[in-house]
Amino acid sequence: MDTRTSSYFDSEAGPGNDDAFAQALQRCVERTRAVLPRTGLRNPRVGTANNSWEYCPHGFDWVMGFFSGQLWLSSQLSGDPVFSEAARARRGQFRAVLENRRWQDHDIGFLFSLHAVADWKMYANHDAREMALESARCLLSRFREEGAYIQAWLPHGPHDREQARFASGRMIVDTMQNLALLYWAHAETGRRDFLEVAELHAATTARHLVREDGTSFHTFSFDPATGEPLRGETHQGYAHDSCWSRGQSWLLHGFAQCYAATGNPLWLDTARKVADTTEKLMGTTDVPVWDYALPADGSHPVDSSAGAVTAAGLFLLASLTEGEEAERWDRFGRRCLHGLLRDCDLTTEPQAEGLLAHGAAFVNSGKSDSMLPYGDYYFMEALMRAQGHTAFFW
Ligand code: GLY
Fold this sequence. Notes:
53% of the residues lie in helices and 6% in strands. The protein is mainly alpha-helical. The protein has a single domain, classed as Glycosyltransferase (Alpha/alpha barrel), CATH 1.50.10.10. A three-stranded antiparallel β-sheet has the order 5-6-7, with no helix packed on it. It has a two-stranded antiparallel sheet with strand order 1-2. β3 and β4 form a beta hairpin. α6 runs antiparallel to α7, α9 packs antiparallel against α10 and α11 packs antiparallel against α12. It is globular and about 55 Å long. The chain starts with 5 loop residues before the first helix and ends in an 8-residue tail after the last helix. 53% of the residues are buried. The structure holds glycine (GLY).
């Protein structure tokens, strides 16, 4: 019998209880249960045209932890051991990532917060704690003192000069979600390095990736030798000076998380600024267009994953603020969730394997309009936050 941490299992729905969300959550858990025999030990990577899953290849993929996260949330909601067992059965795949330095990029936080920190926090699993601490040390080692940022990507292969030029000296907005692993490791061990690196990276992100008007660059490059700031650029967005909607959502959720972990008012102000601008950029739409520089008139793909991360971040921000401000973020989060339920919900489609349609993985590479495992994970997180759950793995 697992030891359960009560805060994960005793939380009741909060004052904002919404039947549509409660029913959607129940369908999410049932869909997760139904696909387990088909997925086996594989981790969903991207949806196909008929809404079945393609799976991560052997090795490392930045998305490989999201299905574990979905399993832990299902475990939390149902208490059914089938979910915790399925998550733990994947442990060897995560161990392999820690044993292969060439696979360890900045996304290690996504992987291990959702796979291992979760098992420690929910079930006091000691192996999971050790694994999560080891992954936090790997993330720490990616910090570049010159420039004060965590380098995002790997210069794959020693002879790939183009990739090395592209990757070195580059930070990206997505890393904000990975800082939670460092804050957790600091809280767990008291080791100051973890906190210092997370705070320095957050400060560099606020300075260089968040623009004055609250929009954002996807990436920022530094001279890798000196740390001299060079320029903001996009990789997955529409243009260097545009605002990629999933990037914007990583910032919103990420800075809210940093504030939750530290109480540093700078992170609250940055999360507010990003949320305020996101609200303006979304205008009258309820599901974000994949890049806010593009008209949201149906002529460009939407990104349901950006909508799910935005909603989860807004509920987190609402929980960290008070009065009219908290109501504003909560209302905006509910609007995003209702948009997802109206336009993207697959839990009422019996043939679909995932939860949300219309994710945009990488539009410039031809990857849009599909299910995405991170869309699914954050959809569940957002629905749970909307229902008053506060205990997560970040
Ligand atoms: N972290 C990669 C992405 O958001 O597509």
